[in-house]
């Protein structure tokens, strides 16, 4: 009902009109509450999924937290130091090693950070070998397994990766692990390079390299199942490559063999870097001497 009051008009609601408006208001309020309830339900589901992801991340944790580096350190310095315990996982976005250095509000390094390895066994090795170790003279590290937590009860969505990133990430992993130098077709994570195993000037008998290969296989088999041992004849650094069946065995080999004395020489053990070629190309003169030495060896064997 519309009633004129002075120069203006006033709308007067009848009892039926008031009920209609109240009903519309109730429907609107009910709709708002329903939408709010649905949104809360979605947020709870998202938070639950995020917590499940966190549990999986904790279960498959391959990261270590460290503190104790000087303020002028770089990610490359940390990568080089921590890579002695395993291959560091490549970042799928940048292709660089996943090394995070924390900074304060003035963008100055705080002296701590996180390193993410490609495999879990590297975490235990890093904690065992690097905790308390000297990063540089006067700077000792504290290293432990990284811990992950959800801050608060709210869900924070992560930006979705572009299409094809998963394939790129897998390609980066394969690039970090592939062995392409012809010594073996296995994976770099399972291949350990041992240096100073022999002095090429002392390897005079044709069977010396075969004997060394057998000795190294016996010693390394005490650590884990060995698939192949390659002795690089004539290598001035006395390099031997050992391929294990399991990555964990390779990790243990480095822990056991590094700085260990073998035949009076101090060994140096580490993972194959994926690019070095330790083979020595034989000259014509070297081949001639080797053939002569082998002929003499066979003659001596026949006389015996």
General description of the model:
- Helices cover 40% and strands 19% of the residues.
- It is built from seven helices and 14 strands.
- The strands form five sheets. The protein has a four-stranded antiparallel beta sheet, with helices on one face.
Compute the separation of the termini in Å.
130 Å
> What is the gyration radius calculated from CA atoms?
33 Å
Number of beta strands: 14
Major sheet summary line: 4 strands, antiparallel
Mean pLDDT: 76
DSSP summary: helix tally: 7
Runs in which pLDDT lies below 50 for 5 or more consecutive residues are 153-165, 175-187
Write the layout of secondary structure elements.
Layout: E1 2-5, E2 8-11, H1 15-59, E3 63-67, H2 75-82, E4 99-103, E5 109-116, H3 121-130, E6 134-136, E7 139-140, E8 142-145, H4 165-177, E9 191-195, H5 208-221, E10 226-231, E11 240-244, H6 247-257, E12 261-262, E13 265-266, E14 268-271, H7 284-303
Antiparallel strand pairs: 1-2, 3-5, 3-8, 4-5, 6-7, 9-11, 9-14, 10-11, 12-13
Helix pairs in contact: 3-6
Overview in brief:
With 304 residues, the protein is an alpha+beta fold. 40% of the residues lie in helices and 19% in strands.
